[in-house]
């Protein structure tokens, strides 16, 4: 494109040639006038002029990327100043990245393999997941098999199970990390990068059911053939799996579950009857890791899709893309070998699995909180009020300071716990970390509440508008509550945290 002068641009003020300058680049908006969501009047007001400040007061930078075809040249001798983020790049906004990703800081927790995993995962999310997530969050459609296949091929599905032997002979994201080096910090990276698709409903629709249920098979299946078959089918994306524990009768109080599994007289199979509610991904699942009441106790069974297993979706306040479902088991026959763990010890199975689930939710929440903080920093720096950027108002700086504090403290606690996970057995994690993880889960979602509230106030009407500058804020203030409930409600988490601490209280009067 030939360089243009400002004098030349100034001549293009008619409907046949309507030019405007944004960040030293010239855009021909003649044919765009009627389609412009902000109307044609404003475009004519800036005809032939530099509209940079007005533009960034009202638009996200990505608008220019979407409409790059309107660009007809750059002003002679001038260079665009606004950074054009490239796929996989780190954010240059202060606090836009966790401390370990900020160039001037170091961290004892992460190594070069973590850094290469982070880059590969972000590139994958931005290239393959985010576009579909944004589209499906809006339409409410489910994830495509094509995307599941891509994730299976890159072994992202396998990585979502966390560290373990299941990763040892797999090529992870084209060799970004060796399976033997994959630890809980790698797991944290995968989970936090996934959140960057900025679509909370789709985020659950994107195999959240698998991430909380296949782990039960890996840890507790008694039958080796069953374990191998189901794991391979799910890792390859051919089959889907979900965790079926909560019921209309019982949420966080798992002991109140009413679904029954009656063992046949010859001990060869169970007959399962009952219902399950709020089960992510159940409508398209082939396998159901199901909590049941067996004779005299609570047990967990792997139920395979068959006649008598009926599912339907439940409408919730986030996108239907999450595939939140209701299940009915009507006289379903399940082989006895599908018992996971021991009979009557289902509580141990479910509780130990909850730990990783809740930790994973904390990873998500910490990243969501940071994303919203980054949006607020960008907006308050860009938005002009009373002739000055919004951030020049002391009250806004107070709010940002509080947000930064909340975001950084939650991430720091998360990393401290993650470090302990790297050095503890699965059993010890259940014993020593279920309390801290539960407390952190509540802390992080309480942070979300405050961040969502202040962010909405900062964005004003835009924080309530589904498109444009405030779309991430509008989404967050509508969906942040999910993580305060999923995997255990805040009060239940707090109670668990303190009860676990009291178990280790010394028997001495102080
Ligand atoms: C290259 C030039 C431009 C392009 C490609 C463009 C594109 C867009 C797009 C895509 C939107 C919708 C944003 C969304 O909801 O996602 C929008 C909104 C808007 N635009 Fe532009 N625009 C341009 C220049 C301008 C200029 C120079 C002005 C003048 C002030 C302007 C004023 C507005 C207004 C007032 C809105 C509505 C914003 C709101 O309600 O928050 N635009 N524009």
UniProtKB/TrEMBL annotation:
GO terms for biological process: fatty acid beta-oxidation using acyl-CoA dehydrogenase. The keyword Ligase does not apply. Keywords: FAD, Flavoprotein, Oxidoreductase. Residues 1-76 form the Cytochrome b5 heme-binding domain. It comes from the Eukaryota. PROSITE patterns: ACYL_COA_DH_1 (PS00072), CYTOCHROME_B5_2 (PS50255). One of its GO terms (molecular function) is flavin adenine dinucleotide binding. Its cofactor is FAD. GO terms for cellular component: cytoplasm. The keyword Flavoprotein applies. SMART domains: Cyt-b5 (SM01117). Belongs to the acyl-CoA dehydrogenase family. This is Acyl-CoA dehydrogenase. It comes from Neohortaea acidophila.
């Amino acid at each position: 494109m030939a360089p243009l002068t400002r004098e030349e641009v100034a001549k293009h003020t008619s409907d046949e040639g309507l030019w405007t300058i944004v960040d030293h680049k010239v855009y021909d908006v003649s044919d765009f006038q009627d389609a412009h969501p902000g109307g044609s009047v404003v475009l004519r007001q800036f005809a032939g002029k530099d509209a940079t400040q007005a533009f960034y007061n009202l638009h996200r930078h990505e608008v220019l990327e979407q409409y790059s075809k309107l660009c007809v040249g750059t002003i002679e001798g001038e260079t665009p100043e606004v950074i054009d983020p490239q796929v996989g790049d780190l954010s240059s906004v202060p606090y836009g990245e966790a401390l370990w990703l900020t160039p001037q800081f170091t961290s004892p927790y992460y190594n070069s393999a973590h850094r290469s995993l982070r880059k590969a995962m972000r590139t994958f999310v931005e290239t393959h997941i985010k576009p579909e997530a944004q589209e499906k969050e809006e339409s409410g459609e489910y994830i495509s098999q094509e995307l599941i296949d891509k994730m299976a091929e890159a072994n992202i599905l396998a990585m979502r199970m966390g560290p373990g032997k299941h990763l040892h002979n797999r090529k992870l994201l084209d060799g970004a990390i060796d399976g033997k080096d994959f630890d809980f910090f790698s797991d944290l990276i995968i989970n936090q990068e996934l959140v960057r698709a900025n679509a909370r409903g789709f985020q659950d629709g994107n195999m959240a059911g698998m991430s909380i249920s296949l782990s039960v098979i890996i840890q507790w299946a008694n039958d080796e053939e069953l374990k191998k078959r189901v794991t391979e089918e799910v890792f390859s994306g051919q089959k889907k799996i979900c965790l079926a524990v909560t019921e209309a009768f019982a949420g966080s109080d798992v002991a109140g579950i009413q679904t029954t599994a009656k063992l046949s007289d010859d001990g060869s199979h169970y007959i399962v009857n009952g219902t399950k509610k709020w089960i992510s991904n159940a409508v398209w699942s082939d396998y159901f890791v199901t909590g049941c009441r067996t004779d005299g106790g609570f047990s967990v069974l792997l139920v395979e899709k068959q006649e008598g297993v009926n599912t339907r979706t439940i409408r919730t306040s986030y996108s239907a893309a999450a595939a939140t479902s209701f299940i009915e088991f009507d006289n379903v026959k399940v082989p006895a070998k599908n018992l996971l763990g021991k009979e009557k010890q289902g509580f141990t199975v479910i509780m130990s699995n909850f730990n990783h689930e809740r930790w994973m939710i904390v990873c998500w929440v910490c990243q969501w909180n940071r994303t919203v903080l980054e949006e607020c920093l960008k907006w308050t720096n860009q938005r002009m009020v009373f002739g000055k950027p919004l951030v020049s108002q002391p009250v806004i700086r107070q709010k940002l300071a509080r947000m930064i504090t909340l975001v950084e403290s939650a991430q720091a606690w998360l990393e401290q716990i993650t470090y302990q996970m790297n050095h503890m057995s699965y059993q010890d994690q259940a014993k020593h970390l279920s309390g801290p993880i539960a407390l952190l889960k509540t802390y992080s979602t309480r942070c979300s509440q405050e961040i969502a509230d202040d962010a909405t106030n900062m964005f004003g009407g835009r924080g309530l508008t589904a498109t444009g500058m405030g779309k991430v804020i509008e989404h967050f203030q509508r969906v942040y509550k999910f993580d305060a409930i999923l995997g255990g409600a805040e009060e239940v988490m707090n109670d668990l945290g303190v009860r676990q601490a009291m178990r280790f209280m010394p028997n001495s009067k102080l």
